[in-house]
């Protein structure tokens, strides 16, 4: 499998690039470009490396195929009607993903169906980092509080 770089940003774009060997070294060449209508704050790739999940300002998680840049799924990443998704993290098994929202909530979502299986509050500041443990039994969150 080729080396691939995927990036997103506040310019509402997702760039898919593949590494190509040239005489003067390795170069990343753009293979796909997706222009969204909302700001993109974070992304994570699933265990198969076939899909990338993107946390969007409009509180949706958009899932794209890493090979062709096509959107595969779009589902609510927060049950709230306020705020923006700030972080997304796919668990090591590829079964669930966690999101954090600027309303200080955390959601755990079934990666395939998009169903919210848990929602949590508890931090008094926004969540700035999340990580599932390798055994997928715990979600560790970091906040400014």
From TrEMBL:
Concerning InterPro entries, the annotation shows: Apc4-like_WD40_dom, Quinoprotein_ADH-like_sf, WD40/YVTN_repeat-like_dom_sf, WD40_rpt, WDR62
SUPFAM superfamilies named in the record: Quinoprotein alcohol dehydrogenase-like
Q: Which residues form the Anaphase-promoting complex subunit 4-like WD40 domain?
A: 53-133
| Protein name as it appears in the record | WD repeat domain 62
Protein's gene: WDR62
